[in-house]
Amino acid sequence: MRAPAHADEQSVRKRDSEYLGRLTALLQSELDFHNLPTGDATHSFHAFPAKFPPQLARLFVDELTAPSEVVLDPMMGSGTTIIEAFLAERQAKGFDIDPLACLQSRVKTSPLHPTETLQQGFAVLNRAKKLLTRDSKGLEQRLAARFGDKTRDFVDYWFAKETQIELQALLEEIENVPCEETRSFLLLVFSAIIITKSGGVSYALDLAHTRPHRAKLVYGPSGKILFDEMSDTISNHRARFLTKKLRSPVDEFQRRLEQNVQGLRDLPKSHQKPIVKEADAQALPLEDNCIDLIVTSPPYASNAIDYMRSHKFALAWMGHAIESLSMLRSTYIGSDATAGFTFEDLPPNTRQTVSRLAGLDARKSTVLHRYYSEMTRVLKEMFRILRPGKAAILVVGSSVMRGMDTRTQYCLSDIGRSLGFEVPPFGVRRLDRNRRMMPVSSRRDANSPIQQRMHEEYVIGFCKPETGERSNDAG
Asked: Could you report the per-residue pLDDT of 290-344, keeping only the tens digit for each?
């Protein structure tokens, strides 16, 4: 005999309540994960600004999904969620519009054989060295033909000529590797020697933090170029200078190759490989009701962390023209380009935040309206693709514009409720300031917008009701 309809409804509401209770408890648990290793498996393959710790993704994947269920990161960045879902035997899917983000996530979840990959890498190194000694003129000619005018200007400004020749030799040999997965692995090693937290092979002083500064150049006694950067002022008011030798791409490639190969040993060979594609989180190529969990970290508003500013240093070598990368940057969520943009209606509290900023800076207010419009479309997509009764976890930070907090955690919660999500109280993470992102000082500086927003971030849970009904406090 079939149970009465009201009994089915009560069962659904009970499951809704139990899941929401588990989600709420997780959000209020310890989310700092301080002093824990973050470079397990393949997480440390490549520098990437503002990554959240793998333990955070692991917590929600383990507690809110079962093996073989589908975990998505629609703005996957460095691939932290994708790797953790893969290691936990979930079906992982990841999307991003950044080519370097897609390359990272594909490589980090490709279980190549460590010994064979190392051998392939050393073969590339040896052939590149031979090119440098036997075909230096040919390398110079092919390098001259590699870039368009604007990209050439960019490369010449940021890379010494001898560095360019070595990079050209490495890249030619990498591009000749027949296996696509091995070729991609070596290409990511190539990118990692350019985009680094310190050092690197370009004139840039720090690319991992996305705001590169070009070192002044001086020549040492040996005739080699040295970097010359003004640093802290000491007590007698004389400036202290830091210098370092220009690094050899070939030497750096070998060091990074050996390091990254070690991470391959931690990847499972039998798990289902993640699906990683270039796609916009505002229009995902997925069916309705097909995802069991979303864990992601959206960009900040107004390009507060400008990923393309550093990524173009490697992407320019991979065939992407500087002009096309600038156009791509303008399409990123959080971009400050607003011409021709389609704005969404915002719920009252979020609209009030945007209006308050308009009193301080009309243009910044429009940029913020763009950001919350984009995030409205992202959250709509999340509601569409999540299975009923499942959740999206967003790790967000708030921005400061013209001295005003944009209240990102409250505004996104507000938008989520207006779309039908249940939104329990969000969690708070205190950041590991020596690991997360610039600056590293633990002291607050009232005059630094970066410092104002980087001491903590927020973990928001958006739960899609199993009944499919809109939330009672939607507005």
From this structure: 999 999 999 988 777 888 999 999 999 999 999 999 999 999 999 999 999 999 9
Long-range (24+ apart) CB contacts under 8 A made by 174-181 are 174/124, 177/120, 177/124, 179/120, 181/107, 181/110, 181/112
Q: What is the pLDDT of residues 118-154, one digit of tens each?
A: 999 999 999 999 999 999 999 999 999 999 999 999 9
Q: Which amino acid is at 62?
A: D
Helix (H) or strand (E) holding 156: helix 149-158
- Residue tagged 């980087």 (tokens): 454
**What's the whole-number average pLDDT of the chain?**
87
Under 8 Å between Cβ of 71 and 86:
no
Q: Which residues 6+ apart lie within 8 Å of 267 measured at CB?
A: 41, 42, 86, 87, 109, 110, 111
More confident residue, 295 or 220: 295
Answer for the pair 131, 167: CB distance below 8 angstroms, yes or no: no
- Main-chain phi, psi angles of 275, to 5 degrees: -95, 120
Is residue 238 packed enough to be buried (19+ CB in 10 Å), middle (13-18) or exposed (0-12)? exposed
Instruction: Work out the pLDDT band at 441, boundaries 50, 70, 90.
Output: very low
CB atoms within 10 A of CB 440: 11
How far is the C-alpha of 106 from the C-alpha of 276, rounded, in Å? 6
High-pLDDT (> 90) share of the chain, %: 71
Give 12-51 pLDDT, tens digit per residue. 666 678 999 999 999 999 999 987 877 788 999 999 887 8
Its sign, for the CA torsion 186, 42, 278, 429, is negative
CA 197, CA 209: separation in Å to the nearest integer? 7
Q: What order do you get walking across the sheet with 386-396 strand by strand? A: 275-278, 91-96, 70-73, 291-296, 386-396, 456-463, 427-430
Residue 92's SS3 state is strand
**Crossing angle of helices 348-358 and 408-419, rounded to 10°:** 140
CA distance 431 to 219: 40
Stated length of the chain: 475
What letter would DSSP give residue 428?
A: E
> pTM for the complete prediction?
0.89
